[in-house]
Write a structure and sequence with these properties.
With 101 residues, the protein is an all-alpha fold. It is 80% helix and 0% strand. The chain has 4 helices and no strands. It is elongated and about 50 Å long.
């Protein structure tokens, strides 16, 4: 797998992580996503995958933190709890895709 193909595969995985964060995971084929992540690692593009996932999650959590931080005081803890619950669920889905890594 050359660098161009690896970046194409990462682009697909990146969009899938976005869909997971947007609660559209039912539209995804986790078997295909797992296979894509496996192939990236197998063909020595694991750093691209790792760095991309790290950046994707860091960016998403920054936007979640801003959203939770803007909540009015009476709703802050409820918003934080909902964000934490959603984060745990999404991380389990992302973990399933990246299990081979």
């Amino acid at each position: 797998m050359d660098n161009s193909a690896a970046h194409d595969v990462w682009s697909q995985l990146s969009r899938a992580v976005d869909e997971i964060h947007n609660r559209n995971a039912s539209l995804l084929s986790f078997e295909e996503l797992y296979r894509n992540a496996y192939n990236l690692v197998l063909h020595r593009h694991g750093a691209l995958l790792y760095d991309g996932v790290e950046d994707k999650i860091r960016t998403h959590l920054a936007s979640v933190a801003n959203r939770v931080n803007s909540e009015a005081d009476p709703y802050l803890l409820q918003s934080l709890q909902a964000a934490w619950k959603h984060h745990r669920t999404t991380m389990m889905m992302v973990r399933d895709i990246l299990m081979y890594m």
